[in-house]
Amino acid sequence: MLKPLGNRVLLEVQKVEETTASGLVLPDSAKEKPQTAKVIAVGEGRVLDNGQRAAVDVSVGDEVVFEKYAGSEVKYDGTEYLVVKDTDIIAIVE
Amino acid sequence: MLKPLGNRVLLEVQKVEETTASGLVLPDSAKEKPQTAKVIAVGEGRVLDNGQRAAVDVSVGDEVVFEKYAGSEVKYDGTEYLVVKDTDIIAIVE
Amino acid sequence: MLKPLGNRVLLEVQKVEETTASGLVLPDSAKEKPQTAKVIAVGEGRVLDNGQRAAVDVSVGDEVVFEKYAGSEVKYDGTEYLVVKDTDIIAIVE
Amino acid sequence: MLKPLGNRVLLEVQKVEETTASGLVLPDSAKEKPQTAKVIAVGEGRVLDNGQRAAVDVSVGDEVVFEKYAGSEVKYDGTEYLVVKDTDIIAIVE
Amino acid sequence: MLKPLGNRVLLEVQKVEETTASGLVLPDSAKEKPQTAKVIAVGEGRVLDNGQRAAVDVSVGDEVVFEKYAGSEVKYDGTEYLVVKDTDIIAIVE
Amino acid sequence: MLKPLGNRVLLEVQKVEETTASGLVLPDSAKEKPQTAKVIAVGEGRVLDNGQRAAVDVSVGDEVVFEKYAGSEVKYDGTEYLVVKDTDIIAIVE
Amino acid sequence: MLKPLGNRVLLEVQKVEETTASGLVLPDSAKEKPQTAKVIAVGEGRVLDNGQRAAVDVSVGDEVVFEKYAGSEVKYDGTEYLVVKDTDIIAIVE
Question: Which chains share 3+ C-beta pairs under 8 angstroms with D?
Fold first, then answer.
């Protein structure tokens, strides 16, 4: 599995419908980019100037909303993941 | 519900009239962007370099004025919210 | 009333003559932007990295000179205010 | 009088000859901008991250050399002043 | 051997196929840039403002995913290496 | 004399030949800008975030090499000086 | 000799062949810029915010790899040197 470093969080973005109600297959750019994802793994947090770590505020299994266009897409074992920094996570869906 | 992270604040922006006095429906760009909103949820505050958190200066229920164009729009359960950083909140309306 | 946050200061900018000596009404861009204002309300100050607050150096009632073009204009209860950061205030008129 | 805030310094810039030796009146852009000024008032210094203030290194009455184009021009009681940050003062003339 | 400095990490990037299934030799720009690499050597970490070092979160032998286009390519003893900062390493493949 | 402030250093730049070996007078842009200078005066150093001063690493009389184009030219008492920040001084010539 | 200041390091860059195997003299831009150099002198390190110095991680005599285009070229006593900051040194060749 992938273990994110520092204040990074590994997300599995929720699938987006690739076919419209009328059955039309949408090209990539026509799909609205999803903004919610499930947290798969969490880094240990960034190192503060006093040497301590600032724990990341989300936990594995959380559903989160994140800033559009944030992070790096990573493919692992056939699944597409998104790795974002914790500062790019806007809110937890409770 | 949405729980904002760090120094983020979840706002419900006040509705803007979509119809002028004369009954004319306004297109999106013709409406003046509202600047006041109600605080729905508040993050725990950003982590300082000494490891402490700086509490956010607004509370749930406050009516606030915020910087135009700040924040990210998030739709949840049919309602549009705005998530801004506490530094983008200018003042509390008392 | 409006309560400014952090190191923000609420200012009431002094009226500028909208008519020249000869009685000519000036369009907006021809008026010299005023630089002095009266302090209406003061935030509690920004949070330092050690968790303390740095108090704002001006008090309610002070007449101040501020950097041109600084701050956000806010309309409240029919009055136009300007909210600036304390670092945008140049001097107090004593 | 004007009391500068933080690490700001109020300067009275020395008059520049507006007439050349031959009696020609110079337009504004032809005059060489003066770089020396007399210190009229001094702020209390900027607040450091430990909450202390870093005192400003110049005193009232000092003649100083400052960075060209630094600061804000402020007119007060018929006199033109320049308010610069202490970091824009290059040297004291002793 | 090369000993990376500070928070730098020496990586050996995994070979990319230069021939397609049909035997076609690919020009350089047509190959998808690999994102995984093996850690060959690790620096001692960057110096924090309190004088301590923040240890690098990866170890020799780790397989890592790194930000595309990060780092400097270095040729040593006939082998091409990539030297990246630890902040450019996204995750460890476990 | 001029007393530089903070981490500034007052330099007297060494004269550059204005005539080539063949006696040709060089126009200003054709002369190679000198990079070495003599230290005339030294500021007390910049104030650190803990309130202490970081002493400047050069002394009066040192011959130094400095970054091209750094600093401000100041004319005083008929002599042209250059005031640079200590971070723009590359090395001392010993 | 030259004594570099702060976190600067004085390097002697290794000579690059100016003639190809076929004897062709190469113009300057056709030569591949060397990336390895020998450390000639080392500064005392930059001053941290707590007033201490962070020692430079290389020693006189080390062979180092450095970021392309980093540093300032300095000619001294007929020899061309390069002065780089320690953060521009990628690795030591051991």
Answer: C, F
